[in-house]
Amino acid sequence: MSEIEVNKILLKKTSGLISSIESMSEKEKSKLPSEDYGKNINAILEKARETNPDIKDFIPSNVSFSDYELLGLMTSTSWIEIHAKLKQLSELLEDY
């Protein structure tokens, strides 16, 4: 698969995730993102770095995780921060 094709897939994934975050209620946004959601975001970011080595230093950093006693491992990066990371990645890939 070519870089252009991979970037198109990454753009579609980021667009869908951005839309889902934007449609969340404030109550939903007040909850921590799940471990699986964080891993999905990190996989997208890592694939973008791998596919676009020329701009890898400009691609946002991965989300982080914390182990919460009652909840288990959760993303410690807020929904707003995740939205910003995805938006930045989307803007970079659209122009690349």
Q: Which helices and strands, and how do they pair?
A:
Layout (H helix, E strand, L loop, with lengths): L2 H20 L3 H4 L5 H17 L13 E4 L3 E4 L3 H17 L1
Antiparallel strand pairs: 1-2
Helix pairs in contact: 1-3, 1-4
Care to describe what's here?
The chain has 96 residues and is mainly alpha-helical. The protein has one domain (3-95). It is 60% helix and 8% strand. It contains 4 helices and 2 strands, in the order H-H-H-E-E-H. The protein has helices at 3-22, 26-29, 35-51, 79-95; strands at residues 65-68, 72-75. The protein has a two-stranded antiparallel sheet with strand order 1-2. Helix 1 runs antiparallel to helix 3 (35-51) and helix 1 (3-22) runs antiparallel to helix 4 (79-95). The radius of gyration is 14 Å and the shape is globular. The model has no long low-confidence stretch (mean pLDDT 95).
Concise summary:
The chain has helices at residues 3-22, 26-29, 35-51, 79-95; strands at 65-68, 72-75. It is mainly alpha-helical and 96 residues long.
**What's the SSE pattern?**
HHHEEH
**Main β-sheet: number of strands, strand sense, barrel status?**
2 strands, antiparallel
Distance from N terminus to C terminus (CA atoms, Å) equals 17 Å
Task: Note the overall shape.
Answer: globular
Q: Strands across the major sheet, in which order?
A: 1-2
Domain module tally? 1
